[in-house]
Design goal:
The complex is a heterodimer. Helices cover about 55% and strands about 15% of the residues of chain A. Chain A is built from 24 helices and 22 strands. Chain A is elongated. Chain B has a six-stranded mixed β-sheet. Chain B has a four-stranded antiparallel β-sheet with strand order 2-1-4-5, with helices on one face. The chains are: A alpha+beta, B alpha/beta.
Chain lengths: ~800, ~220
């Protein structure tokens, strides 16, 4: 056969038949590969960004010195590394001034990720540094300068060694963790440690080995390292380093995967609709070429090859589009992105190609395959019914294909099931409901005016087709509602978690006598702060009368440990009781409330008793409640809360957190002079970093939402297009019989808007179900019903479908009916 | 030679069977021009569809130049049509996405012939459309479209040409022109011509007329 598929494609393209199909395929591949590439690259970038909080890609920490062989191995495997050592120590200036500081010694390579910053004077302009202080030099926390009454260029002493103060230490990438009990920072060189002689066996210190490098070599190294770790040596990853970032990233990832999966479904539906219309419009074509002598296998080959060729072209174009989409995304917020997006690799485009292949095989091929069965007798009798019955197997194949594709794409069966459940509800319930509603509509409509009768009769006449169309519209609207709902609750949650005035400074070591004065000062300076919580250092000694092992330097769960206690009459703000009950106000019972994860680590439940040592006095209390709290909130949070009467006899200091604008930082200077014993921990840079990441992720989510909305719109357009021919034909006849423009367009508007209304209703019900499953089981968020989605889903459905329907059929009133009839 | 014996066509309709053709027996000799006439609904088009192998008979046999159409499946009949049969339809049945030239090339391409473009051009010139080859059907008048259809019907040099109301959609003058063209080509190519028509003038130009009434043959 010399008539090649290429020729046929070219001819069909000229005839405009292929437009929607190609567009649907190109968009399918483009959206899927674009979102996938964007997600992959963004993840790489964000993971790098979050690594800044570790100052490395991987960190091993221990209370004892770590083997130097590990560093030698890292060098051998070409993995860059650095060392830090952190310990509390008295720092002396002159003869009489001293202060307990948190000393951190860092090697020259520190930090491996993120930036170190300093200023030439305390609280001065922040400058970036590529490396820490040189040997013999130290950088002091800004507030240490007034406390020690020293200045840049003067000398201080740590242990037996003397150092020159050369700068104010401002931020370290990994400062966001474990600050309790530590004083202001002193930064020195790692190689100066021996000279100080302060670090002795048994000292309370933390050694860290930091590693960074490209994924393959780092992975190989950590794999080599992990089996060598002993008790007390821990490999820390990003999740532990910064839980807030990790959960934000995980949810953003879920969202983007969800978005991509929905794009897959939408693309599949769009392709199926377009292919169906393509096949319907080709029935006469096939009948003619069959009457001219083409056999079924010729027709199959012709369409099979055309489809393959079309698939190849659409896949290439789609991949190009996908590449374009992700580069536009990155360009749109290149300024906000502090790190270079990583490479996306070939996978996103492979997913795009697989989507295209699946869409072609499972959605486009079945209706085209049936074309070969078209009767050549249609050339004599155009009234022969079309061979377009969609076998149940077609739907089953399509559903399985979609499910597998979504699963492959998201690698998350819960997410896949959540979306499928929504789709199944839409399809199943929808079909029955749509049929019933359409029938009911007819009864009501019979007595209505002429436009209504026309419209409702149209709905009734094509009952089954309309029901199918309602289901398709409902699916598209449902997917769009799901993505809008999830996006809204995600961004809302982040906003409440990280409001603009979120606390960004902690204040600890506040003497009880200073509490009122500090409260007053903050109030007069208009600085919003949290409540003041008492803080008592205590030690957990036993559980249910059984003494715990006392090895401080071994990292195991059930052991004696020092921690901070607080007291409170009421459950602290933003703490949620998950077990037991809060005590009655003013109780004098010996009871305690535990944080959930802490209780899990120690394997304690409500009703257990715990033994403590506060100062030198033993104390026993029964666990009466377990609380869940939000560690990302930057509020003072405590593992253990006691009733006030129980802890009142013990000496306490107080702590709070407050929000200070960058422009008001000099307040700290005044504050420290006024209250030299209180310690301020500046978290503003860390908070700003977290907020930046969340802002970037939010922006990405908004952009992805736009793309999904576009894909959804395409499905709606394809859905409307699918029924336009029949409606145009009828309208043209009515027009020929003298029907007014108003009657025809009004009838079409009512017909499509009714379909849209029903579709919107179904979509809203299914979307609520889907979002409930997604938020509860996939994204680990609390589900709250969103009443605004109901009017939005239902009326937007009616408005959009009605509008699209009238727009698609508008030609019928502007073109002479004979032309319309001739072209159909 | 076309020979059909006791040809019947029944279709299921509203639970019962509707008998459209009630045992037609006839013979058409090679090179003969025959008109099938009769009132609307008498079964003319059904008979044409069966004779051309577009449809299957419920009973009876059709033999064309020694080939029993009843023994062929749809694909076999398609191949037979490609080799032996040409069509001209009332509604032209041109493919709207193809130009006049491409429409004429189509049956040649389906046969796997070479030089299809040259052959198609020569046929279009014979129907006086040499200057409209690149036009699409919608850009052509009804008469021009039917001339393209005639060129397409003769392009693969069929032994038999079936025409279903070839002038049905045309005005009288254009219709006459089309009839002239059809008979002229028919004579030149030595084709057997079987046409269904209501047009007495057209029927009158055929050597023989077969009248159908209620699905049965009536002697002319």
């Amino acid at each position: 056969m010399s008539m090649t598929a290429t020729k046929m494609l070219v001819r069909d393209w000229r005839g405009g038949e292929l437009g929607v199909l190609v567009m649907a395929l190109v968009l399918a591949v483009g959206v899927v590969s674009g979102i996938s590439a964007f997600t992959t690259r963004l993840q790489t970038a964000l993971v790098q960004e979050s690594h800044r909080f570790l100052a490395a890609d991987a960190v091993v920490r221990s209370g004892r010195e770590l083997p130097t062989e590990w560093l030698e191995e890292a060098t051998r495997q070409q993995v860059p590394h650095a060392l830090t050592l952190q310990f509390p120590s008295m720092v002396y200036a002159g003869d009489d001034r001293m202060y307990l500081a948190s000393v951190k010694a860092v090697s020259s390579a520190y930090p491996l990720r993120g930036e170190l910053s300093y200023s030439r004077a305390p609280f001065g302009d922040v400058l970036p540094a590529t490396t820490g202080p040189a040997r013999g030099e130290v950088w002091l926390d800004s507030r240490l300068f007034p406390l020690l009454d020293t200045a840049v260029g003067e000398k201080i002493t740590i242990g037996e060694a003397e150092f020159v103060v050369t700068a104010a230490a401002r931020t370290e990438p990994d400062q966001g963790t474990s600050f309790y009990g530590f004083g202001p920072r002193v930064l020195m060189h790692y190689d100066d440690i021996p000279a100080t002689s302060v670090v002795q066996p048994g000292s309370r210190v933390e050694y860290r080995q930091l590693f960074a490098g490209p994924a393959p070599s780092l992975d190989a190294f950590t794999q080599w390292l992990e089996p060598k770790l002993q008790d007390g040596q821990r490999l820390v990853n990003v999740d532990e380093g910064q839980p807030g970032i990790a959960s934000a990233l995980a949810r953003a990832e879920s969202f983007l995967l969800l978005a991509g999966s929905l794009a897959v479904v939408l693309a599949g539906v769009a392709v199926a609709l377009a292919a169906r219309r393509f096949s319907e419009r080709h029935h006469d074509y096939v009948a003619i070429i069959k009457s001219l002598g083409a056999t079924s296998s010729t027709v199959n080959q012709l369409y099979g090859r055309s489809l393959l060729l079309l698939g190849c072209i659409a896949t290439c174009l789609g991949c190009l589009l996908g590449w374009g989409i992700q580069s536009v995304f990155f360009q749109l917020f290149a300024e906000q992105l502090p790190v270079q997006p990583g490479p996306s690799g070939i996978r996103p485009y492979a997913i795009g190609a697989a989507t295209s292949l699946t869409c072609l095989l499972c959605f486009a091929w079945p209706p085209l395959r049936r074309l070969a069965q078209a009767s050549p007798l249609r050339v004599l009798r155009r009234d022969l019914p079309l061979e377009n019955r969609r076998a149940t197997t077609d739907y089953a194949i399509g559903l399985v294909a979609i499910a597998l594709l979504m699963w492959w794409y998201s690698q998350d069966w819960k997410l896949t099931l959540a979306v499928l459940a929504g789709l199944a509800v839409t399809a199943g319930l929808g079909f029955c409901l749509a049929l019933t509603l359409l029938r009911g509509g007819r009864l009501v409509g019979m007595s209505a005016g002429s436009i209504w009768r026309l419209a409702l009769a149209g709905l009734q006449r094509r009952g089954a087709t309309n029901a199918l169309q309602v289901v398709i519209f409902a699916m598209a609207i449902m997917l769009l509602l799901v993505i809008i709902l999830v996006r809204t609750s995600l961004i809302d949650e982040w906003k409440t978690q990280m409001p603009e005035d979120a606390p960004n400074h902690f204040m600890i070591n506040i003497g009880p006598d200073d509490v009122q004065a500090i409260e007053h000062l903050l109030r007069t300076e208009n600085i919003p702060s949290e409540a003041f919580y008492p803080m008592i250092r205590g030690r957990i000694m036993s559980i249910n009368g059984e003494s715990l092992p006392s090895t401080d330097d071994v990292e195991q769960n059930r052991r004696q440990r020092e921690t901070n206690f607080t007291w409170s009459d009421a459950a602290p703000a933003a703490n949620e009781l998950v077990a037991g009950q809060w005590w009655t106000s003013g109780t004098d019972r010996a009871v305690v409330s535990l944080e959930e994860e802490f209780a899990e680590r120690l394997d304690i439940t409500v009703g257990d008793t715990m033994g403590f040592l506060v100062g030198s006095q033993p104390l026993e209390a029964e666990v009466t409640s377990i609380r869940q709290l939000d560690w990302q909130s930057m509020r003072p949070n405590f593992y253990l809360v006691f009733p006030p009467k129980l802890l009142a006899p013990y000496p306490a200091t107080f702590m709070t957190s407050f929000h200070l604008d960058a422009s008001n930082k000099v307040f700290l200077n005044r504050f420290i002079r006024q209250f030299p014993t209180a310690t301020v921990i500046e978290m503003d840079i860390v908070v700003e970093q977290i907020r930046n990441i969340i802002n970037q992720v939010s922006a990405a989510i908004e952009l992805v939402l736009m793309v999904i909305l576009a894909a959804g719109a395409l499905v709606l357009i394809a859905g409307v297009q699918a029924s336009v021919d029949a409606r145009m034909h009828e309208s043209a006849i009515l027009r020929a019989l003298g029907a007014q423009r108003r009657l025809i367009l009004g009838g079409l508007l009512i017909e499509f808007a009714t379909l849209g209304l029903f579709a919107g209703l179904l979509a809203t019900v299914a979307a609520e179900l889907s979002v409930f499953i997604l938020q509860t089981f996939v994204m680990d968020m609390a589900y709250t019903p969103q009443p605004w989605i109901w009017p939005l889903g239902i009326f937007a459905g009616a408005l959009i479908i009605g509008g699209l329907g009238v727009f698609s059929c508008r030609r019928v009133v502007s073109t002479p009916p004979v032309l319309v009839l001739r072209q159909l | 030679m076309i020979k059909c014996e006791n040809l019947q066509k029944r279709v299921p309709m509203a639970g019962a069977e509707l008998e459209i053709l009630k045992g037609i027996t006839l013979e058409i000799k090679s090179g003969e021009a025959v008109a099938i006439i009769g009132a609307s609904g008498s079964g003319k088009s059904t008979l044409l569809g069966l004779l051309a192998g577009l449809d299957e008979a419920s009973a009876g046999s059709i033999d064309i130049d020694g080939t029993d159409l009843g023994a062929l499946n749809e694909d076999g009949r398609a191949q037979f049509r490609a080799q032996n049969i040409g069509f001209v339809f009332q509604s032209f049945q041109l493919l709207p996405a193809l130009t006049a030239l491409e429409n004429v090339m189509l049956p040649l391409e389906l046969q796997g012939q070479s030089n299809v473009s040259q052959q198609a051009e020569s046929f279009l010139e014979r129907v006086e459309l040499g200057d409209r080859m690149g036009h699409y059907p919608l850009q052509l008048s009804g008469g021009e479209q039917q001339r393209v259809a005639i060129a397409r019907a003769f392009a693969n040099k069929p032994a038999i040409l079936f025409a279903d109301e070839p002038t049905g959609n045309l005005d009288t003058r254009t219709g006459e022109h089309i009839i002239d063209l059809l008979f002229e080509l028919n004579r030149e190519e030595g084709t057997t011509l079987v046409l269904v028509t209501h047009d007495a003038a057209l029927a009158g130009r055929c050597q023989r007329r077969i009248r159908l009434d209620g699905g049965a043959l009536v002697k002319e």
